[in-house]
Structure to design on (430 residues):
């Protein structure tokens, strides 16, 4: 059962007093000790965390609900929902106009301007930003902004993320990597359109959309991901208190200065024809990582790889690697951080930084990557074909700096805290 956020500004201030937000530069106000709130929708928690913060605060919801401009947006969505549901349920329906449930750019900007005003004038909204939005690190690329501007930027990201789900998994827009992230069925097929209609009707039967404007719009994006069987982003939540609980507890007592590296990262490799659950190359990468760990170069090993290669694989590479690392190479669970979400080399590095930050690792200590020759070269390449440049194109930034080649199959990098930022373009691993 989830617990309400805090309904009074004083309680928020008390809960987050150790963060000392006002005393820190905005770009460094994220907190490794911050514990994210959870809603009844884990997918929303990961994809559009700001909406979860709105929903977990009755006080903020009340402020949003009574604002005339936001009420107008909500009323439009409620009216549209009924019309879309009726169109999708019609016996002769040839399409399901679910795109009408999306927010338009004008509506998004209307909400943004209201939030800027409320962040200045309303104590509950202001406390939400200083107590949650900023220390969460989820909107780290905007951390240099003032609190009102940060809230507006976080809202635009959240809105973009939800609308992106509609485009990918209702309208059939192609994702960046269609071979592993796509709908893999035609969005216009009558059978799929009928399933959309069923999803709308079932959600309406739950009585959703009775609260502030966002609940009318975001819940259907969650349903679209479930309908498309693309719930990868939340399959292992809560990750820090679940798969990584033992390692996070162990990390709290570490003397980091004793080690050359904060951790050893092992990226997944994907399956070759004939391989069933784990790549043979990944097994060899694990052997090298275990040897470096036994030599005392780092206290932790990070295993990174999601349900990819092939598309919709039932196996998460990181989970499979963990079993091998423990059974074959004898590395204890306390030394293993698991990232079962990464889908590309960019997010292997990005997600590793996130895990280290939340484990309390120093961000001024390098991370060692044990991998294949080609990937070592790829990480270290500063040119247009290297990982840093690809990260700029896809993430907007490289999640690391100072890449160095340690050996033909090992590279080191320095973590970059921009990696904490939630990516609104990738609903399968935001």
């Amino acid at each position: 059962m989830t617990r309400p956020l805090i309904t009074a500004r004083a309680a928020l201030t008390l809960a987050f007093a150790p963060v000392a937000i006002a005393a820190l530069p905005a770009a460094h106000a994220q907190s490794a000790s911050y514990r994210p709130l959870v809603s009844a929708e884990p997918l929303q928690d990961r994809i559009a965390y700001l909406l979860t913060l709105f929903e977990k605060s009755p006080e903020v919801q009340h402020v949003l609900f009574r604002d005339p401009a936001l009420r107008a947006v909500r009323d439009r969505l409620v009216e549209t929902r009924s019309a879309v549901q009726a169109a999708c349920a019609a016996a002769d329906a040839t399409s399901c106009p679910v795109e009408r449930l999306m927010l338009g750019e004008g509506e998004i900007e209307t909400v943004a301007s209201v939030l800027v005003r409320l962040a200045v004038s309303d104590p509950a909204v202001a406390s939400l930003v200083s107590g949650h939005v900023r220390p969460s690190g989820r909107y780290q690329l905007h951390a240099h902004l003032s609190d009102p501007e940060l809230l507006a930027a976080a809202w635009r990201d959240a809105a973009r993320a939800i609308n992106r789900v509609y485009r990918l998994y209702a309208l059939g827009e192609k994702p960046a990597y269609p071979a592993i992230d796509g709908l893999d069925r035609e969005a216009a097929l009558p059978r799929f359109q009928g399933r959309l209609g069923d999803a709308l009707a079932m959600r309406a039967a739950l009585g959703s959309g009775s609260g502030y404007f966002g609940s009318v719009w975001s819940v259907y994006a969650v349903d679209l991901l479930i309908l498309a069987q693309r719930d990868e982003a939340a399959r292992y939540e809560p990750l820090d208190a679940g798969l990584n609980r033992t390692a996070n507890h162990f990390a709290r007592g570490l003397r980091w200065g004793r080690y050359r590296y904060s951790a050893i990262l092992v990226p997944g490799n994907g399956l070759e024809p004939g391989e069933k659950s784990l790549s043979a190359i990944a097994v060899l990468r694990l052997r090298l990582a275990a040897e470096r760990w036994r030599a005392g170069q780092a206290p932790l090993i990070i295993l990174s790889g999601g349900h990819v290669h092939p598309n919709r694989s039932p196996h998460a590479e990181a989970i499979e690697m963990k079993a091998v690392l423990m059974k074959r190479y004898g590395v204890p669970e306390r030394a293993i951080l698991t990232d079962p979400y990464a889908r590309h080399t960019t997010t292997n590095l990005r997600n590793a930084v996130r895990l280290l930050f939340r484990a309390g690792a120093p961000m001024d200590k390098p991370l060692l990557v044990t991998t294949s020759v080609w990937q070592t070269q790829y990480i270290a390449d500063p040119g247009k074909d290297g990982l840093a440049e690809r990260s700029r194109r896809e993430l907007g930034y490289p999640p690391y700096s100072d890449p160095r080649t340690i050996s033909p199959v090992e590279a080191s990098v320095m973590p970059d805290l921009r990696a904490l930022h939630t990516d609104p373009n990738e609903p399968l691993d935001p």
Notes: The two ends are 25 Å apart (CA to CA). The CA atoms of residues 290 and 329 lie 7 Å apart.
